[in-house]
Amino acid sequence: MHSRRGANRMIQLYSAEQCRTLDRLALDSLEISGFELMQRAGRAAFNELIHRWPQARTLTVYCGKGNNAGDGYIIAGLARALGLEVDVLETGAGALKGDALLARNWVLERDVHPRDVSLIGELPPADVVVDALLGTGLTGALRPPFAALVARINTSGRPVLAVDIPSGVNADTGAVVDAAVRADVTVTFIGRKIGLTTGAGLEHAGEVVFADLGVDAASRRQLQGVNWLTLSALLEWRPLPVRTAAAYKQALGHVVVVGGDRSMGGAPLMAAEAALRSGAGMVTVVTRGAHRNAILSRRPELMVVDADSETERAEAFSRASLFVLGPGLGRDDWGHRLLQAVLDTGKRVVIDADGLNGLVELGATPAAPCVITPHVGEAARLLGESSAGIQADRPGAACRLARRVGGIAVLKGAGTVVAGCPDASPEQAGSAAVLGICAHGNPGMATAGMGDVLAGIIGGLWAQGADEQTAALTGVCLHSRAADLAVKQVGERSLLATDLLPHLMTLLR
Q: How is 150-212 classified by DSSP, letter by letter?
């Protein structure tokens, strides 16, 4: 049974519409005006600015025509009060209303005089640039003049602080249609935005600082957000099965890894070793016979079966608790035959790499419970979409993938998204929702073999008694967190997939 206390510790991410609801709930719970809440937001952003760049003496603040601009005006007024030189460049000031207009009048009273950016030629130099152009309401491409202003900010060569969300980033998906501000720091308010945690939004946000503005957690708990997956909170919410004193290897699951066509014997080896290190009782590799000696010399605890021996293969398949299908499988007839043979068993399966390509090429869908782990290109082939289309809405794409296979989908990449049926009941089988977005990971993971290790970890956890949701969620977090620990030792450029295994062991210990 999952710990409710752990569930309460899970950080929640919210859509743009939910954030607007949170704003309203905040005003009610705090019993303050919208302008007072705006002042809190401006103060939080300014405090982060002077903490991050204490030597800054000049500031350029770009303001649009919504509440995001109001936050910018507040920042400018606070900076002037502290003695900084402030230049406010605005666009659309004539459209300001409500609290944003109050903020502009407030800053005028503090001897800050905004200038229409369209009348400015060469921009003045500044120690720090503040992006307060656009907030969470953006849904498509940037319209004039914002595209040009975003380009000016990005080519300024100055540190950039974004207010709530970098202009140009979709708050719901993290997508950037044409361009977006590349911030060094983003200070986001009241509710964490989904779009800051995955895809291009993760890259453009820089370091994200959350300011609750005094809003208590009870207000946020009124809305069901998306779990932002940190390993520590996840293990408390969904603890892994306890290994008892009477445990024996058969009870801890038998993972059968299927793959490794010619020249690709390393892929199933990495998946198999990761499954063993994740706690599976036994692991067999079904692969080309030529790989046997190399695999056993690296990891003698594994069993290796020649995939071309029907008798050996059938025996191994009969003993499998579940399969990890696809590492190094290839895309010719040999791989396709193995894929179909695995699917014909009707047993649980983790499908990665060429196993996913094979589903498309054979027009197949797993009948048994499954976890798929595609990268963007594989996801595009599975859904018959473009890679750009997948990246335009990673949370939505993950849900479509889960529906495509009737199981759990792990859409890998910056801010890995896990989606599937939120309820295991049969009546929910056709639905899918985002189960979580991973908070760990780094660019060093863009290297060969990372997916094989992930598939093996998920298979190992699932085989020893975790349900498929827990195996997928925990596997993703263990994998990414291990990569974060490994990269501290070897650096992003030198990180290898097998570098994760010692840190995986440490985390599981």
A: HHHHHTS-S-EEEESS-TTB-TTT--BSS-----SEEEEESSEEGGGSSHHHHHHH-EEEEE-
pLDDT at 3: 43
Q: What is the pLDDT of residue 1?
A: 38
Please give the pLDDT value at position 247: 80
Enumerate the β-bridge partners of residue 185: 161, 207
Q: How far apart are CA 466 and CA 468, in angstroms?
A: 6
Sheet holding 115-116, edge to edge: 115-116, 85-90, 58-63, 128-132, 160-163, 185-189, 207-211
Residue 107 CB partners (closer than 8 Å, separation 6+): 73, 74, 76, 77, 80, 88, 114
List own/partner pairs for 379-383 with CB under 8 A and 24 or more apart. 379/411, 381/356, 381/357, 382/356
The secondary structure of the chain in percent helix, strand, coil, rounded to multiples of 5, reads 50, 15, 35
Residue found under tokens 């699951």: 253
pLDDT given for residue 423 in this prediction: 63
What does each C-alpha distance from 210 to 54, 192, 203, 207 come to in angstroms?
A: 20, 7, 17, 10
Give the number of other CB atoms < 10 A from CB of residue 301: 10
Q: In the block, which residue shows the tokens 């069901």? A: 224
- Check residue 252 and report its DSSP letter: G
* pLDDT tens string 24-83: 999 998 999 999 999 999 999 999 999 999 999 999 999 999 999 999 999 999 999 999
The percentage of the chain sitting over the pLDDT mark of 90, rounded to a whole number, equals 87
10 Cβ contact list (under 8 Å, min separation 6) = 227, 228, 229, 233, 234, 237
**Residue 242's pLDDT is what?**
86
At 122, the pLDDT band (50, 70, 90 cuts) reads confident
Helix count and strand count (H, E) for the chain? 20, 19
Contact 166, 183 (CB under 8 A): yes
Residue 136, pLDDT score: 94
List the one residue out of 326, 393, 388, 320 whose CA is nearest residue 356: 326
Alpha helices in 85-145, H assignment, sequence order: 98-108
Contact (CB, 8 A) for 259 and 486 = no
Contacts of 463 (CB under 8 A, 6+ apart): 252, 253, 254, 255, 275, 280, 281, 321, 322
Assign 11 a pLDDT band (cuts: 50, 70, 90): very high
Extract the tokens encoding 264.
Answer: 């690709």
Rounded to whole angstroms, the Cα distance separating 74 from 286 reads 64
The rounded distance, in Å, linking the Cα atoms of 437 and 394 is 10
> What are the tens digits of pLDDT across the range 291-306?
999 999 999 999 999 9
pTM for this model (two decimals) = 0.95
Burial of 433 (0-12, 13-18, 19+ CB in 10 A): middle
